[in-house]
Structure formats: structure tokens, C-alpha cells
Amino acid sequence: MGTTDTTKPNLDSTLNERKAFEETKAGVKGLVDAGINNIPSLFHHQPDKYQKSNTTNHAIPVIDLVDIIDNKDDASTHQGIVHKIKEACETWGFFQVVNHGIPLTVLEEMKDGVKRFHEMDAQVKKDLYSRDQERSFIYNSNYAIYSSPALNWIDTFKCYLAPDTPKPQDFPIVCRDILLEYGKHMMNLGTLLFELMSQALGLNPNHLKDMDCAEGLVALCHYYPPCPQPELAMGLTKHSDNDFLTVLLQDHIGGLQVLHQDKWIDIKPVPGALIVNVGDLLQLITNDRFKSVEHRVLANRAGPRISVACFFSTGQRSSSKLYGPMKELLSEENPPKYRETTVAEYVAYFEAKGLDGTSALTHYRI
Predict the structure, then answer these.
(1) 3-class SS of residue 219
(2) End-to-end CA distance of the chain
(3) DSSP-derived secondary structure for 320-339
(4) I need a surface site. Which of 32, 195, 216, 345 has the fewest CB within 10 A?
């Protein structure tokens, strides 16, 4: 029995709509500035099959680092924090850190800098709009604009902060100084977190650092404009992160949710805290010991919401270094579950696949 192909015209029209949106170079904020009341259909999302948790007894762990930063010699306190991190990475894949050593003034200025950029004159921003991954600073909307089932209510700028020292002139003046300062603070915190995670795996404190997990740092600086129909849209679709580790700064608005035991759990903003989550590549090299967990961001009317996700990863910048499950964690009972890959190959696959609600790790399973 013959069937008519009705999908192609729809796909073509969707592609044309996406191209038209891209060509404005004004992002989602451009739609809001134009005063729209109904969001375009290319931003309409299908309902998620998972329910939101209605219990309040689920909250991701909050870990206080004050004793490690102020008193490095107290072995029992140190061991207690390592144990909490181990538990959080194995069960939640997420935790928050407080007293992490980054001054509150720096966190506030970082959020302000991101806001200043996204609220700059539209024409100035358009000149910086790009998808060229070789650039040190890239501003656009929806990185997977042509491969995701629906677009997200988000604009982003991305900048590489390490391993190459950024040239200040590559960054817009409205956020240049704070980006460079924040990057230095973040490298220090990342190094400490990788030491604690190495110990949580029963390894030497420098193990993950020596594997170059902390070599690269990419900041994704997100702006979620207020959405007139948040029930139809998503700030950011369900996904896990394509890096080793993410450290996230979020503002007071909220909307971040983590998928835990098939329920969406709100990650409530804690003043001065940073959210830490395991990335796909850390799950791969720990052979599933540490969990890279799916999360999403809801659209909201209250915006703009600001967040800064620092990815410990070299991204698509080329390196031939292969990563597979660490031999120190393997045994006859625990054989490798993944094949080796480079960071650049993994990120390229992740981005080509788009935010389709599936994990890129599946592609690398043995």
C-alpha cells in the first residue's frame, strides 16, 4: 500500500524558518525586543515523558569547601569532603559547592558582564555573531540550530579561556576584564575539584589533572530572555554535558532541573554557591563510576535569566590524545564499557547529533 511523503515540505519549511531566524543575527532577544506575544512554532517543544518531582526531600548535596581552602592539613575533614564528593558523583552526578574561594563580588560582576553583553546595542552584537569554532569568542543562538527537533529560548556567547591564554582584544570590552579574571579563579577551583575527585576514585590527587582533564576551559555564557509562552518552550532541552566537568554559576531566577530517579528535581539557587556536575567524558573514563546526568532549563516569564557554564574540556580544538576507561579502575569483574575517543571527536559527534534527548555516550559503548 503506497504512502505519500508529507514530511519533506515540513522539513523544508522548518529549515527555511531556522535560516530566516539565523539570518537576523538578533537571537531570541531580538524576538522579545520586537514585542512578540506568540512564540514561533520552531520553538514549540513536545511534552517530556518524565514528571516533575513533587517531593521536597530531594535536593542535590551542598558541599562546604571552607575547611579545605582554609585548613589543608586537617586529614579527617579532608577525607569527609572527599567522601561527600564521591557519593554525589556516584548517585546524583551533581552537587553545589559553597565557600569555594571565589569572592562574591567576582560572581556578581561575572553575571553583570554577561548581561551587559547580551543587552548591548543589537547592531554591535550582530558583528560578533558567528558559528566559526576556531574563534576565541563566538556569539549566537542555539548551537544545534539545524539538528535539534525544536529550538531553545536561549542566546549564548562562548569563549575559550584555556589552554591558550586569551588575547584581551578578542573579547568585547563590556565583559573583557571579568572574563579573564573569572577564568583564572575557575582554573584554580577546577584543579581543586579534580584533585578531590581523583581521591574519591581511590587515585593519586593529581591523577585526573595529569590526564589533562583540567587543561581546557570553555565558558558558555547564557541569556534566557523572558518568554511570553513558557509552557510551550524550553530554555535548554534535556541533555548531559560533553566535557569532563562543568562548574555553573546561575542567578536567582532558577529553572535548572536535574533528572534523578526518573523525576525532574529543581536545583534551587543558593546565594554564592556554584553548581558542579560530572560530564560525559568523566563518566567514560571512570567506566560509569561517576554519572553524567541529564538536566534541562525551563523557560520562564521572569527573565532574563543569566548563567555561566564553565566546561573543563578542550572542545573542538584538535588534540590526538585518546581517552578511554582508566586501567586503574578496571578488573575482570569490571571490564571497559567504552571505546576510546578524542575530546574533539566526541564533541563533534555530540554537536552533529544535536539536542535530541538521547545520550552521545551510547555511541561509544562497547
Answers:
(1) strand
(2) 39
(3) ---B---GGG--SSS---B-
(4) 345
Question: What Rg, from alpha-carbon coordinates, does the chain have?
Answer: 21
Q: Answer yes or no: are the C-beta atoms of 159 and 221 closer than 8 Å.
A: yes
| pLDDT of res. 71 | 65
Cα separation of 122 and 124, whole Å?
6
Q: Is the pLDDT of residue 109 over 90?
A: yes
Residue recorded with cell 528535581: 265
- Name the residue with cell 557554564: 309
Check residue 129 and give left, alpha or beta (phi > 0: left; psi -120 to 50: alpha): beta
Instruction: Return the axis-axis angle of helices 176-200 and 75-91, rounded to nearest 10°.
Output: 100
Q: Which of 279, 251, 278, 282 has its CA nearest to residue 267?
A: 251
Q: What is the pLDDT of residues 298-338, one digit of tens each?
A: 999 998 999 999 999 987 777 889 999 999 999 999 999 99
**Pick from 232, 221, 240, 248: nearest CA to 353:** 240
- Identity of the amino acid at 256: L
Buried b (16+ CB within 10 A) or exposed e, 63-102: bebeebeeeeeeeeebeebbebbbebbbebbbbbbeebeb
Tell me phi and psi for residue 140, to 5 degrees. -165, -175
Question: 160 near 218, Cβ under 8 Å?
Answer: yes
User: DSSP state, 206?
Assistant: T
Strand 94-98 to 62-64 pairing: parallel
Does the CA dihedral 281-284-289-295 come out positive or negative? positive
Residue type, 36: I
Please answer whether residues 207 and 198 qualify as being in contact, where contact means their C-beta atoms are separated by less than 8 angstroms. yes
Q: Percent helix, strand, coil in the chain (nearest 5)? A: 35, 20, 45
Reply yes or no on whether the pLDDT at 205 is more than 60. yes
Instruction: Pick the more confident residue, 49 or 247.
Output: 247
Q: Could you tell me the three cell numbers for 339?
A: 571505546
